[in-house]
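Figure S4 source data
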Amino acid sequence: MLAGLLNWPQATFASKVDINGRALEVVREVDGGLETVSAALPAIVTTDLRLNEPRYASLPNIMKAKKKPLQTLTPADLGVEIRTRLQTLKVVEPPKRQGGRVVASVDELLDKLRNEAKVL
């Protein structure tokens, strides 16, 4: 949806991304194997789990992080105003679903679909 609103190209489920100047080359997995897609930049890219290898923190780094001070910011510190931007006009329950009908045979079902529902 974002790509459509911005009128930018989109590449989805990327497992490998290469940038060549003003172009983007994305490799993605499909049912039949791998597919390579090219797009001009700027572009929207969604990724697959296999794009990056996760890095895990070592125990010494975890201990160092515990000792560092934690800075707490408020929205006002960042220049952000917190206010309601949506207004609820009305809340309506969906209509109750009508009960179904039990048919005795396939022929009767086909007859009702043809004559009453007019779908066949």
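Figure S5 source data
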Amino acid sequence: MDAPLHICQATPADAGIISRIVERSIRVGCALDHRNDAKIVAAWTHNKTAEHIHTWLTDPRLYLNIALLQDKPIGVAMAASSGQIAFCYVQPEWFRRGAGQALIRDLEAWLLNQHLHQARLNSTRTSEAFYRHLGYRASAETFSVAGLQAIPMHKALAPPS
């Protein structure tokens, strides 16, 4: 990326744009997982509406961040105070350009601030190599949910040296 990427905590005013980023990332970027099956896409996106996201943004147990490039939102991620990373979605035209990595690193810093030393997530097949690149390892057998394969992964978190 030529311009600097800025990662910040999302606000309730961001709910609409977050919903659009998530839905587009799923529909376009995750076709390997949903195979353009309308039922699977609907099941995956049903709780990604602006209303649901607004609720998440006001829950103190959750942290949503947003990646901005020249003030344009290009990605979003969410973690829970339990140590679970719920998701990381980037606009498809910004895949493999550092936004997802920056979002996850910010979530990991937030989890460390919550005094947690391990992050957990369920990866899709599309995202598995991305998470492995960031140091996540499979922690259990793959399972199926709503027509998707989920790969449980974890990573030990260490404070920056």
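The helical segments are 15-29, 31-34, 38-45, 50-57, 99-113, 125-133. Strands lie at 5-9, 62-69, 72-80, 84-90, 118-123, 137-138, 143-145, 148-156.
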